[in-house]
Design a protein that fits this description.
- By secondary structure, the chain is mainly α.
- The protein is built from 6 helices and no strands.
- It has helices spanning about 5-40, 45-75, 80-100, 110-115, 115-120, 125-150.
- Helix 1 packs antiparallel against helix 2, helix 1 (about 5-40) runs antiparallel to helix 6 (about 125-150) and helix 3 runs antiparallel to helix 6 (about 125-150).
- The longest helix is centred in the N-terminal third of the chain and has 36 residues, at about 5-40.
- It is globular, with a radius of gyration of 17 Å.
- The mean pLDDT is about 80.
């Protein structure tokens, strides 16, 4: 990354930290729901599920806001190559798909994805699980992006 003043570098570091924490909470919260909450509550309408959903909603808001800031910072970086931009597009597509899976019960998705709880593999168990697994796939893409920027 080009040389930036220390205060700005600190702010960028804070944005990156918030982005990573929000992503970890989003994916981790999805996996927590998938493997611990849902099997024990027997219903999606429980108070614990509602509380977890609200907390994850806040983490998604932080994730989207910090992600937007980071996109502008990274595409302005002279080390942002074509390969980096392709990986960025892939990561954005994965994040968008994961977001759509859980937002408003998957409204606007093709019927096959909306019906994922009935048609998906048992280890994924529904749209929340699929979104969490998509988040896990997006993580190595982020690592590759970081490597490209730092090696450029």
């Amino acid at each position: 990354m080009a040389e930036v003043p220390a205060a700005l570098a600190g702010l960028i570091l804070l944005v990156r930290l918030l982005h990573v924490l929000a992503a970890a909470f989003w994916v981790g919260g999805g996996l927590l729901f998938l493997y611990l909450v849902a099997p024990r509550t027997g219903t999606v309408g429980s108070e614990l599920t509602a509380q977890l959903g609200r907390a994850m909603s806040h983490s998604v808001s932080v994730f989207l806001l910090t992600g937007a800031v980071l996109v502008f910072i990274r595409i302005a970086d002279p080390n942002a190559t074509g390969a980096y931009l392709v990986l960025l597009a892939l990561k954005l597509a994965l994040a968008f798909l994961a977001f759509l899976l859980v937002w408003r019960g998957g409204a606007g998705l093709p019927p096959r994805l909306r019906a994922w709880p009935e048609s998906g593999p048992r280890f994924i168990r529904g749209r929340v699980g699929l979104a969490a697994w998509i988040g896990l796939v997006a993580y190595p893409v982020s690592l590759l992006m970081q490597q490209l920027i730092e090696s450029g």
